[in-house]
Design a protein that fits this description.
Length: about 190
C-alpha cells in the first residue's frame, strides 16, 4: 500500500516520534509499505512522521548516491547499497568537519537548499528484526540518516537554514501547506 506523503505545515511533522516495541501492530507490512511509498515518490529515505505516524521509524535506500562523488571510497559506495530500516534510532555523536549539500524532502517538494551537517555520526538503532546495532557512518549515508533522524525528532531540513533564507522561502512553504504544489505522488495536506 502506498501512503500519501504528509506536506509541510502538518502538525505530525513537528512531533517527536514515540519508541515502538517489536510487537508494534503490522510492523513488517508498515516497513514494506514505507519502502513502496518511498520508491514510488522517488525518495532515498522516508520517516514515519511523513506518512502521519508519530513513531521512531525510518527507512532508507541511498544507492542512488553511489556514483555521485568520484572521491567516494569503495567502502562508502558499498555502505550505500540496499534497504536499511532504523527503529528507535538515537544519534549518539556527530563529529568531523561540517559540509554542505543540497537537500530536498518529499514533504517539502520543489525546494532544495544547501544544509550544513557534520560528516560522521555514531548511531544506535534496531533493524526490522529488532536486532540492535551501534555503528559509525560517514559521508552521504550519514547525511541521509541525519535528515531522516531529524524527522523523528520533529525537525525539518528547512530548520537548518538561515533566517534570511527562511524568509525567502516563506511563500513557497505556505503554498505547499495549502496544497498549491505539483507533484507526481499523493500528498496529505494540513487541515484548514
Amino acid at each position: 500500500m502506498k501512503f500519501p506523503i504528509v506536506a509541510y505545515g502538518h502538525p505530525v511533522l513537528r512531533k517527536v516520534g514515540k519508541e515502538i516495541a517489536p510487537d508494534y501492530p503490522g510492523l513488517q507490512k508498515l516497513i514494506d509499505d514505507m519502502f513502496e511509498t518511498m520508491y514510488e515518490s522517488n525518495g532515498v529515505g522516508l520517516a514515519a512522521p511523513q506518512i502521519d505516524k508519530s513513531i521512531r521509524l525510518f527507512v532508507i535506500d541511498a544507492e542512488a548516491f553511489a556514483d555521485l562523488d568520484e572521491e567516494m571510497t569503495d567502502a562508502q559506495k558499498e555502505q550505500l547499497k540496499g534497504k536499511k530500516v532504523f527503529i528507535n534510532a538515537k544519534i549518539l555523536e556527530e563529529s568531523g568537519k561540517e559540509w554542505s549539500f543540497s537537500e530536498g524532502c518529499l514533504s517539502i517538494p520543489g525546494i532544495n537548499e544547501d544544509v550544513t551537517r557534520k560528516e560522521r555520526i555514531k548511531i544506535t538503532y534496531y533493524d526490522r528484526d529488532f536486532n540492535k546495532h551501534t555503528e559509525e557512518i560517514d559521508g552521504i549515508l550519514a547525511r541521509v540518516i541525519q535528515h531522516e533522524y531529524d524527522h523523528i525528532e520533529g525537525i525539518l531540513f528547512t530548520d537548518h537554514l538561515s533566517a534570511f533564507k527562511k524568509r525567502l522561502l516563506k511563500r513557497k512553504l505556505e503554498n505547499i501547506s495549502k496544497g498549491k504544489v505539483n507533484v507526481d505522488y499523493r500528498m496529505k495536506f494540513p487541515k484548514k
